[in-house]
Design goal:
By secondary structure, the protein is of the alpha+beta class. The chain has two domains: about 5-70 and about 190-265 and about 280-310, T-fold (Roll); about 335-600, Zn peptidases (Aminopeptidase, 3-Layer(aba) Sandwich). It has helices spanning about 15-25, 55-75, 85-90, 100-115, 125-130, 145-150, 185-200, 295-320, 330-345, 355-370, 425-445, 475-485, 515-525, 545-550, 585-600; strands at about 5, 35-40, 45-50, 90-95, 160-165, 170, 205-210, 210-215, 230, 240, 250-255, 260-265, 265-270, 275, 280, 285-290, 325-330, 375-385, 390-400, 405-410, 450-455, 490-495, 505, 530-535, 555. The strands form seven sheets. Strands 1-2-3-7-8-11-16-17 form an eight-stranded antiparallel beta sheet, with helices on one face. A six-stranded mixed beta sheet has the order 18-19-21-20-22-25, with helices on both faces. Strands 4-6-5 form a three-stranded antiparallel beta sheet. Helix 13 links the parallel strand 23 (about 505) and strand 24. Helix 4 runs parallel beside helix 8 (about 295-320) and helix 9 packs across helix 15. The structure holds adenosine monophosphate and magnesium ion. Magnesium ion binds near residues 183, 255, 299 and 300.
């Protein structure tokens, strides 16, 4: 595989200008602050050099490439002559203590011991059983197969190490096979790093399949190198920046299951296996990123922490000098939303026209203000049939978009009166409020093209029965106001009851057809098309006043909220509590809404 130099030139508007610029760049030597990119394939993955050492850039790429080849020749399980293959084939090997095998296997066994076997280089037979080493498997290995492998082949204690006084190390495989895939790339990066430093390299970033180590600075002011990790949620496909820049000499690695996995019978299994259970890791994490003083550490520890999960992982990494970890959960938006639903429910009932509703409105406004937004509490009174005035409060906030257009997201936050003294409407009023707040937080950090206005509506629930003076108070007030002010909206999206663990999304007939189409596409995109039902009937809900005012609106509601599929028996009962909700469901609806906004 040849080394490829990648010229990165920011696309400029006019072709003529671009041509002129390229000519200029070629004629002139790159400025010292400019970063040069090289990439190629090594060790079955993408290798990359970013360097500001312009005069020796090509030599640096070659040195790196040679280092990777050398490590692969020593440690690959796919190479018959490699030290690792010989150890497995012969059952024992005697190598120099400074050899690649001694360094990497020695460290792997140490991490195995420290992590109680969460990281374990004897994971090889499990990798094979789960189909990661060639061949296709049509079903997961049986429980018996797994327990046999665990009993007979897995366990780092089987590998014996003896240090000869002559600077040599003797390994005995203990009849097991070894896999250094969780650590070898990091080691290869360290080897390349040392050689580049010896050669005179100063300012560079080297990367092998996401194992990164940096030297010097990228020349953009503040020192160090800025590194981004992929947003594993796939909603935006974005890159997320690490919480801080990497300092010269530091390394970073990410382990996760979202890029490398195997599909058996339609289900995805992680390529990282928990050697304590024999099962592919399936915990709350989407990925773990570890910053460490060397790439071998960041590589081994990121794999280890992915197996350990966040709680045990933090304990493990806290004791390691110079190491920091960033854990990314599978449902960050949904988890944030659920936390907010729980906090809102903890305030107690929020029946319209009671102090509880006032407290809730203030709480919502405070949450929005804490995100740096400028919420408005719009109080309005509406006369009752007996002529007495009744106060309602809508809470509103807008996040400016990067482009044009405007979308309105709606949720009611009031609870239904007359159910019980402790009715908190976790799904009904709570779930959509928590999700809207979480979406606001998300959009503050990553704004989208249209501006997004969030409206938390009061008085949705009717006291007796829906009518001109009962129910939908907040939405009628807001729809009228926006229409009278001539505000244009691309879409009005109402969320209502969107947190049920057993998520079914029932779209009432009254709703804009194009928005329903967008909804179906977005639901399919996030793998939830099967959970959607198009209802043949209309529903009285907060979107209706907007339709009446001439806006395009849709109601996203799960009206099958109950103890069994298709039942709705938790609705408007004291059973509507936060334990019936899940972060996963809230995440799915949040993802759908973000996609709809994108495609509006
Ligand atoms: P990484 O991408 O660095 O997290 O490493 C994943 C690779 O490490 C897998 O493809 C396997 O080769 C290997 N591996 C899988 N599970 C483990 C484990 N529990 N301990 C050590 N290595 C593992
Ligand atoms: Mg690793």
């Amino acid at each position: 595989m040849g080394i490829r130099r990648v010229k990165t030139i920011v696309a400029l508007c006019a072709v003529a200008l671009l041509v002129a610029l390229v000519a200029y760049r070629v004629a002139k030597r790159p400025a010292r602050s400019e970063v040069e990119y090289w990439d190629w394939l090594s060790m079955g993955t993408l290798a990359e050099l970013q360097t500001r050492d312009h005069s020796i850039a090509k030599a640096e790429a070659q040195i790196m490439k040679d280092a990777f080849t050398e490590v692969e020749d020593a440690l690959s399980v796919f190479r018959d002559g490699s030290d690792l293959s010989r150890l497995v084939a012969d059952g024992t090997i005697r190598v120099s203590s400074t050899s690649h095998l001694a360094r990497v296997l020695g460290f792997a066994l140490k991490v195995a011991d420290e992590s109680g076997g969460a990281f374990d280089p004897t994971v090889a037979p499990l990798m094979k059983a789960w189909g990661f080493r060639g061949g296709t498997i049509s079903a997961p290995p049986s429980a018996t197969t797994i327990s046999n492998i665990l009993a007979n082949s897995v366990g780092w204690q089987r590998v014996e190490v003896a240090y000869g006084g002559d600077g040599r190390t003797v390994f005995a495989s203990g009849g097991t096979r070894l896999d250094l895939g969780g650590i070898a790339k990091g080691y290869a990066i360290d080897l390349a790093y040392e050689r580049l430093k010896d050669f005179g390299g100063e300012n560079f970033l080297i990367n092998l399949g996401g194992n990164i180590r940096v030297s010097g600075t990228n020349g953009r002011g503040s020192g160090g190198w800025t590194v981004a990790i992929r947003d594993p949620f796939g909603v935006t496909g974005n890159w997320q920046h690490l919480p801080r820049q990497l300092r010269s000499g530091e390394a970073v690695a990410t382990s996760g299951s979202y890029e490398r996995f195997i599909e058996i019978g339609g289900k995805r299994y992680s390529h990282i296996i928990d050697p304590r259970t024999g099962m592919p890791v399936d915990n709350e994490l989407a990925s773990v990123t570890v910053i460490a003083p060397t790439a071998m550490e960041s590589d081994a520890y990121s794999t280890t922490l992915f197996v350990l999960g966040e709680e045990d992982g933090r304990r493990f990494i806290d004791g390691k000098d110079g190491c920091e970890a960033v854990f990314v959960g599978k449902n960050p938006l949904g988890t944030d939303a659920l936390r907010r639903v729980e906090a809102l429910c903890a305030l107690g009932p929020r029946n319209a026209m009671t102090p509880g509703a006032k407290t809730a409105a203030k709480w919502i406004a405070d949450e929005l203000a804490a995100m740096g937004l400028e919420p408005e509490i719009d109080d309005f009174d509406e006369p009752a049939t007996d002529g007495s005035a009744r106060i309602f409060r809508n809470v509103l906030a807008t996040i400016k978009g990067t482009g044009s257009g405007r979308v309105l997201l709606l949720s009611h936050y009031d609870t239904k009166s007359g159910i019980s003294d402790d009715f908190v409407g976790a799904n009904d009023g709570g779930s959509s409020t928590g999700l809207l707040l979480a979406l606001a937080k998300h959009l503050v950090a990553s704004p989208v093209s249209p501006s997004v206005t969030f409206a938390f509506l009061d008085g949705e629930e009717c006291v007796r029965s829906y009518g001109e003076h009962d129910g939908l108070h907040g939405s009628r007030h807001l729809a009228r106001k926006l229409r009278d002010e001539g505000v244009a909206l691309d879409a009005v999206i109402l969320l209502d009851m969107v947190g049920d663990r057993d998520l079914t999304l029932t779209l009432p007939r009254n709703g804009d057809a194009r928005l329903k189409g967008l909804f179906l596409l977005a639901a399919a995109d996030v793998g939830r098309r099967q959970s959607v039902r198009l209802l043949p009937y209309e529903m009285t809900d907060d979107h209706q006043p907007f339709i009446d005012a001439g806006y395009k609106a849709i109601d996203i509601i799960d009206f099958e909220y109950g103890s069994l599929p298709e039942l709705n028996d938790y609705w408007h009962t004291p059973s509507d509590t936060p334990d019936k909700l899940s972060a996963e469901s809230l995440q799915a609806v949040g993802d759908i809404v973000l996609k709809m906004i994108d495609g509006r």
